[in-house]
Design brief:
Oligomer: homodimer
Largest interface: A-B, 64 and 64 residues
Low-confidence stretches of chain A: none
Shape of chain A: globular
Mean pLDDT of chain A: 91
Radius of gyration of chain A: 21 Å
Chain lengths: 404, 404
């Protein structure tokens, strides 16, 4: 398997587009995206666990129930959440696209992202549908990736190529992250396409299993969004034998999916609102997988640790503090902590107590853009990784006046 | 009952002091505090639930087991946590004070606050003990309140006067808050003194019950400190009949204690690191008390809501989002949300959906220093309040480079 240049159009039979239709005032910002498969695709999705759910999720959930979808429409600039007419508008979006593409309305996935609680005007979307569909092309995946962005600074797309029974398959994906990122059983907006042939049941199994170690292991700000979803479309056009059980092909597919998802996770965490650094907490030596994950996530979520990383301050006491309140049963006196980046590794805590280290070297390591906080619990064989970002002035700035 | 000017020396028989002994480099910052009762006092305490516990907590817990204490020593500038010799140093602090005061070492409460994981040098404390004790006075409670501060901007002290069976009683307290504030079954450093006579069992009951609605309902940054404790000393010098059961006197005592604790909570939340505003989330109409508390706390902890309040932005969707991921079972379609300050009240959400409101009036209300986020779940009769603060540039600044 290798990572290739590309995104949602890398797999055979998929095209995409993104335009500015007028939901946002800024005319240079694309705000409406489409992803389309030439043939109906097997579909699987996971959604936010927030009790407040965006209207598009409710509509999508209904449409995807039969395990089939052919197109995705997604706007940015407005979440279509907590609006009295939300469902009606989301269904309208689906209807408009289904007519223009001549696909069934129930084969359309609808998604929205942006501010909550402001009615979404259907007019710009209705006016935009024609040019949106007319511009569909296997070269325009990047436009779709741009159109789903909100406060994201960087476009997030990735693709991989792998082989199943001699047939070349691809998986590609795009994501929108930035703020309100603290997935719980599901996540921010992620759209993944593949030409691998896989049954609906196995696709769903692959997705639900993988997100436990990927999208559920990132956090930007501890807020679980109302509109999170991850959708995978598999159109089978690679011509491989359909994956219908947990065999070697399924394992290969899982590995490829995991690579796409981990890459998108790192992109989302590293481009968290206001972030200057990608943080990874890598936990080893845990007694159970659950302990490893709980510890990794707690460290990544600690405001104090995040602020210390922003300041390149090797304040490891905050890491230990976050482990201590995580709720995981660990033996504090066995814990080792190191900070690592491409500049090197510095051990700062051994057996739960501080060790002498060079502040200068620690600073040099922590001034890098990607920091790994290594925690060894020395208590078992389970590992886990979680991803997050530093807490910066700009996070506050972006969120102090988001709506204006 | 009335609130009076004062603090830990308001109750009869208590004296206090605070000096600069040299733990901190800044010679104008007091860093060593003492609180002393003329006679041994009934003592009760609650501690952090963080698995990482400061050495002073371990020593204090042992000393307070018999329900009696006579003096409190507390340093700031170093938490004496995650150090190999931590217990030894905490016991040394206790021994030094016990000798100087001629009280039993096991009647001394030891507390520390500051950076984690740096060995605490006993020397400045040893040198400071004599002047610390010599300066003990009923007029120096303010110095003790100053000496326990870390990144706190404001001194936190309060006292109340009430009557039990014709005898005038007082309760007073001081607190240290600011960062790493997200109490869980116990809280930051709070020292409370009273001259009311109350049995050890009833004092412990009063404290444990009251913190559920006070110190466990505040959050500055979601980080539960390793060194949190609340200690109450009751020396009985007011001469009231000892409180030994849940009678009218106990209710009066509880009400006075609650007033002291709520006042300290508001002071701690309003003086959160970098805070410009005190936030209160007031939940009504909940089906159970647990739901009311869970919702109030979730809103107060939401980084996005906190940042919106900093920007005086009436972004109520974030409040609804925080309610939705709180874990509490609520009916989103029944929820009303208003923002309130001394400038007035603005209803922003009715039955879970937005209502028209004047952004100008909302802005005027949210520019105030104390904001109440009113949430009516319209689903029952239970209420709860939680307190927090806004998320600001200065929080990031303070915590980006705390150790240097």
């Amino acid at each position: 398997m290798e990572i290739i240049k590309g995104g949602v159009c890398s797999a055979k039979g998929f095209s995409a587009n993104g335009i500015h239709c007028g939901i946002r005032h800024n005319r240079t910002k694309r705000d409406l995206a489409i992803i389309y498969s030439q043939v109906p695709a097997t579909a699987a999705a996971v959604y936010t666990t927030n009790l407040v759910k965006g209207a598009p999720l409710i509509v999508t959930k209904k449409h995807i129930e039969n395990g089939v979808a052919q197109a995705i429409i997604c706007n940015s600039g407005n979440a279509n959440t907590c609006n009295a007419n939300g469902i009606e508008i989301a269904e309208k979006m689906s209807d408009l696209l289904s007519k223009e593409l001549s696909v069934k309305p129930e084969d359309v996935v609808v998604a929205s992202t942006g501010v909550i609680g402001q009615p979404l005007n259907i007019e710009p979307i209705a006016n935009g549908i024609k040019p949106l569909v007319q511009g569909l092309s296997a070269d325009n995946g990047h436009y779709a990736a741009e159109a789903i962005m909100t406060t994201d600074v960087a476009v997030k797309e990735v693709a991989v190529e792998f082989s199943l029974g001699g047939k070349t398959c691809r998986i590609g994906g795009i994501a929108k992250g930035s703020g309100m990122i603290h997935p719980n059983m599901a996540t921010m907006l992620v759209f993944i396409t593949t030409d691998a042939k896989i049954s609906s049941q196995m696709l769903s199994k692959a997705l639900k299993s993988d997100i436990q170690n990927t999208f559920n292991m990132i956090s930007v700000d501890g807020d679980t969004s109302t509109n999170d979803m991850v959708v995978v479309l598999a159109n089978g056009m690679a011509g491989n034998n359909e994956i219908v059980k947990e065999d070697e092909d399924f394992a290969t597919f899982m590995k490829a999916l995991n690579t796409v998802n981990v890459t998108l996770c790192r992109m989302i965490a590293g481009d968290g609102e206001g972030a200057t650094k990608l943080l990874e907490c890598s936990v080893s030596g845990a007694k159970t997988l659950d302990i490893a994950k709980t510890v990794a996530k707690s460290v990544i979520c600690s405001s104090l640790t995040k602020a210390a990383m922003f300041g390149a301050d090797a304040n490891w006491g905050r890491v230990l503090c976050a482990i201590g309140y995580s709720g995981a049963q660990v033996d504090i006196n066995k814990i080792d902590v190191s900070f690592k980046s491409k500049k090197g590794t510095v051990l700062v805590c051994k057996n739960g107590a501080g060790v002498d280290f060079s502040e200068d070297i620690a600073k040099e390591i922590l001034l890098e853009k990607e920091i790994i906080i290594e925690v060894n619990l020395n208590d078992g064989d389970y590992n886990s990784q979680a991803w997050g970002c530093d807490l910066t002035y700009d996070y506050v700035k972006i969120n102090g006046d988001y709506r204006t």
